[in-house]
């Protein structure tokens, strides 16, 4: 099978490629210099030449706060809406299956219940709105697709909350972290495994949610990340730590659908511990 990984140099794309390498699955990986997904002619030409059968679209504009104002607002729209549409249209045109990654920010986070794949969406920031438009484009244009919503991603190859906390701990003995936003952290290895599992096991097409098991607040996450370090961490509210983009208060996604296809998901604490062992 000819596999294409778009966004192969990002946090998730890099882990996915490492895992494909390990499994001996051949693929072609592109970064934004090889293939700009906002350019339809480039995408069309690339697909015409390479003829992928399976496309992992890991490319995205991921600066959630940057997306609130110009020029980030425009880049967010171009990459996450137009770019996603281009990749979906080319995948459909050339008969490929597409795996598109979306976000828990499609929800408003006002529920205290877990969100399922059937829960109504109501994004509260520009990034969430663009990613939802990306989801809608994929499901409208395509017949063979997986949309996988994930949240709070951390892994070896990116800028993420775990690295931020570990780095801050080198220079600070006291930190404050938001304690009124709850979600599910996701290790890129768990997510990459599911992305490969979907392909290998030909699970039914459609929308899935995937993160690690168990939920926490950012404060609880930080406490676990720094549990071996001598750093005092105090909880604060979102109001005390203002950010440009609104974040959902409770964006805990139900994982039952992914588990119902036989995929086993470890807890975020186990994932974090494995990750810290890996990078040390
Ligand atoms: N990082 C997180 O916490 C979360 C990420 N996600 C989603 O997971 C997916 C992977 O995210 P990350 O790997 O963390 O992001 P990342 O920012 O590390 O990687 C994104 C990649 O997209 C590429 N890219 C950007 N514009 C492009 C363009 N015009 N053409 C081609 N490539 C382009 C970048 O070069 C980069 O390699 C994305 O769809 C993101 O929306 C969802 C929820 C949370």
UniProtKB/TrEMBL annotation:
Biological processes per GO annotation: dTDP-rhamnose biosynthetic process
Keywords tagged on the record: NADP, Oxidoreductase
InterPro entries: dTDP_dehydrorham_reduct, NAD(P)-bd_dom_sf, RmlD-like-bd
Pfam families: RmlD_sub_bind
Enzyme Commission number(s): 1.1.1.133
RmlD-like substrate binding domain residues: 1-279
The organism's place on the tree of life at top rank: Bacteria
GO molecular function, a single term: dTDP-4-dehydrorhamnose reductase activity
Cellular compartments per GO CC: cytosol
Pathway participation: Carbohydrate biosynthesis; dTDP-L-rhamnose biosynthesis
Family: Belongs to the dTDP-4-dehydrorhamnose reductase family.
Protein name: dTDP-4-dehydrorhamnose reductase
Organism: Companilactobacillus kimchii
Gene that specifies this protein: rfbD
């Amino acid at each position: 099978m000819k596999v294409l990984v778009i966004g192969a140099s990002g946090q998730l794309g890099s882990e996915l490629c490492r895992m494909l390498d390990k499994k001996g699955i051949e693929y072609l990986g592109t970064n934004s210099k090889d293939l700009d997904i906002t350019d339809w002619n480039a995408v069309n030409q690339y697909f015409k030449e390479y003829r992928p059968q399976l496309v992992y679209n890991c490319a995205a504009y991921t600066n959630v706060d940057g997306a609130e104002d110009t020029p980030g607002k425009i880049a967010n729209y171009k990459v996450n809406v137009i770019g996603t549409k281009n990749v979906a249209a080319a995948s459909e045109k050339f008969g490929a299956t597409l795996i598109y990654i979306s976000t828990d920010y499609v929800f408003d986070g006002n529920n205290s219940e877990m969100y399922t794949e059937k829960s109504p969406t109501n994004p509260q920031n520009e990034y969430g709105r663009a990613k939802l438009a990306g989801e809608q484009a994929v499901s409208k244009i395509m017949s063979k697709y997986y949309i996988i919503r994930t949240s709070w991603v951390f892994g070896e190859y990116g800028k993420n909350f775990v690295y931020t906390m570990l780095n801050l701990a080198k220079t600070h003995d006291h930190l404050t972290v938001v304690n009124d936003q709850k979600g599910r952290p996701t290790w890129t290895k768990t997510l990459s495994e599911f992305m490969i599992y979907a392909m290998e096991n030909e699970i039914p097409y459609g929308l899935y949610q995937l993160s690690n098991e168990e939920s926490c607040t950012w404060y609880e996450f930080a406490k676990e990340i720094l549990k071996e370090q001598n750093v005092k961490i105090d909880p604060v509210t979102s109001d005390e730590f203002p950010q440009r983009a609104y974040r959902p208060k409770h964006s805990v996604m139900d994982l039952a659908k992914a588990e119902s296809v036989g995929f086993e998901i470890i807890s975020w604490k186990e994932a974090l511990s494995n990750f810290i062992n890996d990078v040390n």
